[in-house]
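Second attempt. The first submission of OmpR/PhoB-type domain-containing protein had a stray character pasted in from the spreadsheet, which I only caught after the job came back as garbage. Lesson logged: always re-copy from the clean sequence file. Corrected sequence (908 aa) follows.
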Amino acid sequence: MDLPLGPPQARRLFALLLIQAGQLVSSDRIIDELWGAAPPASAKVQVQGLISGLRRNLRSPLGDQPILTRGAAYLLDVRPEETDTGLFTRLAAEGRELLMRQCHHEAAQRLREALALWRGPVLAGVPAAAEVIARWEDQRLSVLEDRIEAELGLGEHDRLVPELRDNLATAPFRERTCGQLMIALARAGRAAEALDVYGKWRQGLVDELGIEPSPAIRALHGEILRDSPGVTACHHPAYRESVVPSQLPPGIPDFVGRDALVADLLAELTPDEERETPRVLLLTGAGGIGKSSLAIRLAHQVAEAYPDGTLFASLRGTTNEPRPPEAVLAGFLRAFGVPADAVPADVDESACLFRSLVHGRRVLLVLDDAAGEAQLRPLLPAGGGCAVLVTSRFALDGLEIGRPVPVDVLPSADAAALLARLTESGEFDEDSVAAQQVLEYCGGLPLALRIVGSRIGDRSGWRLADVAVELSVERRRLDWLRTGDLAVRSSLSLGYRQLAPDRQRLFRRLGLLPTADFPAWAAALADGGEPDRVDGALEDLRHRHMIQPISRDSGTPRYRVHELLRAFAVEEVGAEPERERAEAVERVLGGWLWLAEKAAARLPGSVLRPEPGTAARTALDETPVAEPLSWFQSELHSLEAAVSQAAAAGLGELAWEIAVVAASYFDHSGLYAEWSRCHRRALAAARTSGCARGEAALLRGIGQIHLYWDDYPEATRTLTESYRISERIGDPAGRARALTGLCVVARSTGRPGESRETAKRALAIFTEIGDVLGMAHLHTSYAVASADLDLLDEAEAELDEAWRLCVELDDPHRMALVLRRQGQLHLRRRDPRVAMSCLRRALDLLESLSDELCAAQVRLDIGRTYTTLGQRQAAAKVLTGASSRFTGAGNRSSAAACARLLGTLTGA
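This time the job returned cleanly.
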């Protein structure tokens, strides 16, 4: 920026203030500087005028008051780093500090930045004191010599010779410059030229100044004459003949899989001349996942692209004593030929020397099993020609450079291929049940697969079927997965032993959860803490790759623990007192029951759903179930496992309550197989625990499934048994619900009169106990049975009453079901257009509720109506969609009805 400073005297005054920026300059000194020994009588007044003018000219670019008055002195109020001189002084000091620590590359960079601030002679165009200009020029030359010393330390002697000759010609009496030129020539193998430079320089010194060179440069002259160590290239410790280390461990001959990842990382490791920073790949993952094998595989494949050396170091990050970075650096420096006594003890000095050594070279480093960012930082080179492969069980999120590469378990196809390669017996059959079981138990963990392959391949008689049996017992799984010095348990325990005590407790309590994937709140309940206070601990486990984040459904973090890590957690938690474990399990299952109830309450009401039982609930934040269908979908596997865990633990009340609440989603989504499996597990537990009300409720659910499957004898048996239990324990609501199912059985088997009488009995009970939902449902059932008997007016009256109750309940789902029955009734009365109107309204309601199965039933009726109206193409389209949904759900009778109608449309 050019500043309008005014006349020469003002420019000279500003130069004086600028050189002393941030310091007071007295009025007397200013007068001496401007006028010398004969100042005018008005000198002080003139100084004040010059200051005023400078303030006017500087106010806009430099602020409101850049020049301050302090008594009889003035001060330019700027920070040192805001001026070239201040910034130059700081950069020069930093560069010299780095040079003293032998950090030649960093020192040279810092000193170059300092010199780049010089854009010509100091104070060019400003009449200033000659001694000021001389002092700053001397500082510039000193920094220039420091920069050259740093670059000589980097071995750039050949490049520096021409520059040093020019510098010596410009400042012929600077002894340090002469000495640097002599050293550069000597290291370049040009000792004779170095001696000639000295001779001519000495002669000029004697002729011009009448003095002899100093003892230091005379000693340098003598060392060059004697070819002393440390002066010529062949003896200089940092630049002796190049050593190319090759430290990679042997490759992995049976490496299998990860083809896409390997291709991606190989492309990343391709050298690029334009890069200014090294390539750093951070391969992170759990123990036994195959990180080291992957890193070594990659290193061997790109080694030729790094001809200046391949370095390997085990950092022992999962041991109690990780290797200190200075010890690793010492090994690297010795590998490059640096004598042991020349290796600095200080980690920063070692790091600087290492970066200087590899500067401008292509070197590949493999740093295995890193303990964390602090251990890694000193080991990273600075040049863009280098590449680094890091493996660690830690996420290394805080490292400033590097591409994170999470390494997961092997995909199923790769795991199968590895196991096949390892067994080498021809016994492996990917399609066999035993092979699939072994692969499932190993969970894609390469270490576990290698152990299985070793034990099968050692000709000890083990077969995959035997292995599958051994691994099926979770508590014995880790005992079996060991051979030689390979053991899954010892690998997993390394990470566990490094955890703080509270993190260890949280991790082992994951073994109390019903599944390997879990929401954060479940881990918190297992650990006995508040759900919102466990995030930091879970994040720590994630950082160490002991758990993996898998989703954040409904705003709730969800994680997965590998099956073998889970087996390890089960072992560890087994040592805790039984009572504490039991209490933790009940808390967790009570949490699932609480949330399932809240989610089910947001789904359409069901007449089958009983009143809550006596199992203890664990109250939680209801936010996760704001979208109940999404919540049930994400928790479906966990809910099934929770029922199984409750049953196995003898918690019959929890087992049946969770199962019955989950039935709301099973029914809504047509998941009949899951519904049946879950209810039958809970039924055995309820019977064992003597939970009669739960037994009756579960039997009603199983009866409903048999109705959907058109298995009417089995439906009759289970519903009748449910009715008898409810009668025995004095549960009228239970009797009415069982009768509701039996009403459907009678209607579906061609007994409308019996169906009507059964509905009437159930309706009377629901009316007596004031169950409005049950009343609405049974009025509808009564209407359907009446219509089957051609009592259409009575059926219409019953549907009108059902509609009134639905409006009272404000239940759109029940309204849709009543509208469907009204449409059927209008179709019986040969009024298809009114029928279609009712059915369309019902379909809109059901689609808004995402009830696909009930919507399919309405589409079946719409297909019938289109057929009546003669719209065959529209009928065929809607019936095809409904048929597909019925077939998927296993509803044979409805699927058959669709097929019959489609047959009539096509003339089949």
